[in-house]
Design a protein that fits this description.
- This protein is α/β, with parallel strands linked by helices.
- The protein is built from 20 helices and twelve strands.
- The strands form two sheets. Strands 5-12-11-6-10-7-9-8 form an eight-stranded mixed β-sheet, sandwiched between helices.
Length: about 500
């Protein structure tokens, strides 16, 4: 998946992104609210050496201090410093725990030591920092003080100068406080803004991971281009999603809606896809139920009839027939009646507005797969092909039942309907292999219920008023609504 595809996936799955952001930001705010404030108090020490006043001695002392100051910083957290501080301030903690809250830093090329103490109370943090600095200075000076040599047994000389008491040794290092610690006014943690930013970044990363995982696991097709890249079949049409399709499955004959224009485009692409050998008998099927194959078969047949093509629509879905109820026709007399010899094709053929002939399914038989693959079915199809220029056959889905596999071998072409965001790759692959196995001629695919992009191609050409054409009259829409009111069964789910 490239970057552009990933960004489109994020936009398409914006609810997931929003939920992840809300959860992450909420967690950050919760952590901030329950966290105990921590304050930091800082004191600074200057390490000096006791040297002479000449320049050479000063330089030597500076070099000595810089060489030793890094080692001094490691002494701050030893028990020699922390244990007396705990005892003196009567802290309810251990020397080791206090050491974990002390930080000593030596700025580069200086003889300064910055001591920082963290505590939950600002005033106590300052007291601890100042006490640690005082104790630390004493410990360092004691460590640097030369040890007094043990006197050896010497003979008495009677010299008063030699009998005088020796001078106590003095530490060559002196630590002075350059900045005392004061009680901080604001805590260093938690940091609400930093936690909020971390929550936002964490939420985005979580959302990106979930979207990437779902896109990897989701093998359905989101665009007709993805379908075309997966299967080596031409895409003959893309039918946009319409929330009103279950209530009004038939598009307006003279309307300029997105669905109406899509079916006209499908009709044109189908007519020009096989110019040298145009198919006369076309089966419309899908992999699984709910992909809109019946709706596409009805509207395609109606669009062909409106274009002046002599068309017959056959309801070959003998398990869940929906064509007759949608058009408001008689259901009992139809294809099964002809197949068992109780009637002729002309006796049960029905006409609808627009010049379309419809052969209903008839009574539901106990053996639909055998009837549709029979020699009598082949004879009926040939008879219809002699009577009409195009015969559109709506069939059952391929994967749940075997009805369409036997019927497809008797036709001259097959249209495979693939629903956007529902039909997965395995289903399309299996359905295509099933049709190819029986020698069916694959004409192409129809991408149904596709999301309409804002400002996309359907948005620009949805209405032709800008080109001088008038919008569809209201009376046509009224008649279409009345025709749709006769539906007794949903057609998008077949």
């Amino acid at each position: 998946m490239d970057l552009q595809g990933f960004l489109k996936a994020l936009a398409r799955r914006w609810p997931t992104v929003l939920v992840c952001l809300v959860l992450a930001v909420g967690a950050a705010l919760a952590v901030t609210s329950v966290s105990t404030p921590v304050y930091e108090a800082r004191t600074q020490l200057f390490v000096a050496t006791r040297t002479g006043e000449n320049t050479v001695d000063l330089n030597e002392g500076q070099t000595f201090s810089q060489a030793r100051v890094q080692s001094y910083a490691e002494i701050v957290r030893t028990r020699q410093v922390t244990a007396p501080v705990v005892k003196r301030l009567r802290l309810r903690t251990t020397p080791e725990e206090l050491a974990s809250r002390i930080t000593a830093v030596v700025p580069l090329k200086t003889v300064l030591i910055d001591i920082t103490v963290r505590d939950t109370e600002p005033r106590r943090a300052a007291r601890i920092a100042n006490t640690v600095a005082s104790r630390f200075s004493w410990v360092v000076e004691q460590l640097e003080t030369p040890k007094r040599p043990v006197p050896s047994a010497l003979p008495e000389t009677g010299d008063k100068a030699e009998d005088a008491a020796p001078v106590p040794p003095v530490s060559p290092v002196s630590l002075g406080v350059t900045e005392e610690a004061v009680a901080p006014t604001s805590p260093t943690s938690p940091r609400p803004l930093l936690n909020l930013a971390a929550g936002v970044v964490g939420g985005l990363l979580l959302a990106a991971g979930l979207v990437a995982l779902r896109e990897t696991l989701d093998t359905t097709f989101k665009t007709s281009e993805a379908l075309g890249a997966f299967i080596a079949l031409p895409g003959l049409g893309t039918i946009p999603y319409d929330r009103n399709a279950p209530k009004q499955p038939l598009v307006s004959a003279d309307g300029h809606s997105k669905r109406a224009e899509a079916f006209r485009k499908l009709r044109t692409n189908l007519q020009f896809s096989q110019v040298d050998d145009p198919p006369r008998i076309i089966v419309v099927t899908s992999s699984v139920p709910g992909e809109g194959k019946t709706n596409i078969a009805m509207n395609l047949a109606r669009s062909l009839a409106e274009a002046g093509v002599s068309t017959c629509l056959v309801d070959g879905d003998l398990r869940r027939p929906c064509v007759a109820p949608t058009f408001g026709l008689v259901q009992d007399g139809g294809l099964t009646t002809v197949l068992i010899g109780q009637a002729r094709v002309g006796d049960v053929m029905q006409q609808v507005a627009g010049g379309l002939s419809v052969l209903a399914s008839g009574a539901v038989p106990p053996n639909p797969a055998e009837l549709l693959a029979s020699a009598r079915m082949e004879e009926v199809l040939r008879e219809l092909a002699d009577m009409y220029e195009v015969v559109i056959v709506d069939t059952a889905p391929l994967l749940p039942v075997a009805d369409t596999v036997g019927l497809a071998s008797l036709t001259q072409g097959a249209l495979l309907v693939v629903r956007a965001g529902k039909t997965n790759r395995d289903q399309v692959r299996t359905a295509t292999e099933s049709l190819e196995r029986v020698g069916a001629r694959m004409l192409g695919t129809v991408f149904s219920m596709a999301p309409v992009p804002k400002g996309g191609r359907y948005g620009r050409y949805g209405a032709y008023g800008q080109y001088g054409e008038l919008p569809a009259p209201r009376t046509s829409a009224t008649r279409e609504g009345r025709a749709a009111s006769a539906v007794t069964r949903p057609t998008d789910g077949t």
